[in-house]
Structure formats: structure tokens, C-alpha cells
């Protein structure tokens, strides 16, 4: 301040962020106008900062709720577009909403930041698991997903499992699904392999479920999904760059910030 | 509002990071005869398309995985291509100094957005 002859203002916080101050450094002048030093003042603004951050949280919550409602609205419209009856709409829409809700619950437990892929698999596939647990097997390394990838993959797994119940390995007793994933060399691959179900043929028309899978992987994860409708059972492979899936913690914010 | 065929063959850029929302808008617009460019979810890709593609209109989601879509809007404005912003933050999402930008609040009805585009293009 002495060097530049300019006053300075900074917001400073106690290390544990429980108190906040506005710090000003002004020139201290004699009545004749000569600079005799600096005057440093601290004004406590803790309660102001608290209200501010509360308002930010409310705004963010508001935004998330509206976004979620927009997703639900779109999901309803598209499910209705492919539905053959009100009952089939109710079942398909209910299942998709439940799948979304499952992922949101897991995200909530992880502080809205990250969920492990294994947990997504467990929770989304649990409703489809047979009593003896032999119809589904998963294998893959721990992988912390970001919130968006968790929502996409949760939805994808739900659509695949629903499809398997209708037409694939889970449509007959003795059928089996193997899910494997790996994250080698910055690339994520997931294989979904069905066996022991009724003979499969590629669907005549790609329904919303399959569209959702292959387009969501391309759109949100910059990856690809390939389907092989072999007679022995469906094999589907997802590939995507790991950087778009993995959770990356944001750098911690600084303690002192200029006031604007 | 809906002059028949006003949307036919129109090239609409679709920028939206929520896939399910993008897919629904795409379905409605394609059915109305539009050619959908995208949908794209990431700012970098959206900027590329906004610079290069021949476009009649654009739908821009304000928040793309935490990044703001405004650079895309600036490019479109320079090219005199009309656009709509969509957001869950409401009108407050538009930065100061760009009051002319139109905002549609989420959640929205895709059919209404389609009709808004038709009205803008007819004007």
C-alpha cells in the first residue's frame, strides 16, 4: 500500500472457515496530508458470508431440482412414445424412474461427488438377481465415477437388465449375465455377456431402451456401445475414455480472495 | 404461429449435457422436419459446431458439466444466428450486458420449444 499509494481490500477467513473478515489497508495521513503509515481494519462479516453461502446452496438446489424434473419430463415423453398400452408405459416409466432414483441415492451418500461403479452395479442389478444368485456375476476393479457417468451407467445397466428379462438371458431359467469391466491405459471397457437364454435375434426396430444405451454413451461419455446379437446371447461392449468417467476432485479453494 | 413447413429442413444446433433431455428435443424437432446438428454435450465441441456449421437456429443449455455456454452464444450472435438459452437457473442465468438473450426455464415442454423456434423463424 505504501509503495502503490493505493488502498487494498481483501476478504480473509479463519483457517477453519468459521469466521470471515473484510480487511482494509488504507494510508494513514496527517492533517497536512503527509503519509505517516498505514491503517489496517478488520470488519467481521461472518453472518453475511453465511447468508451468502446459504443462498448459493438454495440456488444450486433449485437448479438441480429443475434439471431433474426436466429429465423426468423427457423420460416420460419418450417412454410414452414407445409404449403400446397405458400399462406398459406405467411399468417401463416406473422402472426407469426407480433406476434414476437408485443412482441419486448412491450419489447422495457420496456427497453428490462420486460413486463406485461396483455399487451402481449392485444396486441396479439387485432387483434382477435370482434367489440362488447364480444368474448374474460381476467382476471389475474399483472405479470412482463422476456424478454424470454414474447416472448414465446406472440407466444403461437398468435398460440392459430390463431387456434381458424381456428377450434375453433372464427370460428363461438357467440364463446368465456376466458383467466385466477394466480401466487399462486410460480407457474404460465394459462387457455385458448373456448366455443360456432363448435364441436371440437382432430386434427389428431399435426401441428407446437400446437407443438410450448407445446414444447416452456417445453423447455424455464420448464413448461407443456395440451390440452383437449372437444366437447364444447378447454381447454388448462399452468403450469410453476414462477421463470422462472417473471422478476428479476439484482443487481446494484458496483462503484469501480479493473482494470484487 | 405454426406456419406449415416453416421448420422443414431447418438446421438446428442442439447443445445440452443431459442426454435424456437432448434425445427428447431431438425427437420432437426431427419429427417436425428439422435437421438436428448434434446434440453435443461439451463446450469445446459446441464452439466448433457454432463456428463451422450452416445453422438456422440453436438451443443452448446454459450449464454444460459446470461450464457456461456463453462463448457459443457470442459466436452465434456474431453470425446473426438466432438462439434460445435453456436453464434451471431462470432469467438470472444470463450475464449482465446481454439482456436481449432469450431464456426458456427448465423443465420445459419440448413441443413448446419447437413452437417457439417456429415463431422466431417466421418472424
C-alpha geometry of chain B: globular
| Uncertain ranges of chain A | none
- Into which percent range does the helicity of residues of chain B fall? 25-40%
Helical amount among residues of chain A, as a percent range? Answer: 40-55%
What is the strand arrangement across the widest sheet of chain B?
2-1-3-6-7
Please tally the β strands of chain A and state the result. Answer: 11
The chain-level structural class of chain B is alpha/beta
Which oligomerization state do the chains in this entry correspond to? heterodimer
Radius of gyration of chain A: 27 Å
- Hey, roughly how much beta strand do the residues of chain B contain? 15-25%
Q: Cα distance, first to last residue of chain B?
A: 9 Å
Task: Describe it.
The complex is a heterodimer of chains A (260) and B (123). With 260 residues, chain A is of the alpha+beta class. In chain A, strand 9 and strand 10 (233-241) form a beta hairpin. The two termini of chain A are 18 Å apart. Chain A is built from five helices and eleven strands; from the N terminus they run E-E-E-H-H-E-H-E-E-H-E-E-H-E-E-E. In chain A, helix 2 runs antiparallel to helix 3, helix 2 packs antiparallel against helix 4 (147-166) and helix 3 packs parallel to helix 4 (147-166). Chain A has helices at residues 46-82, 86-109, 117-125, 147-166, 208-221, and strands at residues 8-13, 20-29, 35-44, 114-116, 136-139, 144-146, 176-182, 187-195, 224-230, 233-241, 257-258. Chain B is α/β, with parallel strands linked by helices and 123 residues long. Chain B is built from four helices and seven strands; from the N terminus they run E-H-E-H-E-E-E-H-E-E-H. Chain B has helices at 19-31, 43-52, 70-78, 110-122; strands at 11-15, 35-40, 57-61, 63-64, 67-68, 83-87, 103-105. In chain B, the strands form two sheets. A five-stranded parallel sheet of chain B has the order 2-1-3-6-7, with helices on both faces. Chain B has a two-stranded antiparallel sheet with strand order 4-5. In chain B, a hairpin with a 2-residue loop joins strand 4 (63-64) and strand 5. The relative contact order of chain B is 0.21. The model of chain B has no long low-confidence stretch (mean pLDDT 90). Chain A binds chain B through residues 59, 62-67, 69-75, 77-78, 81, 148, 152, 155, 211-212, 215-216, 219-220, 222, and chain B through 17-25, 27, 39-42, 63, 65, 87-89, 105-110.
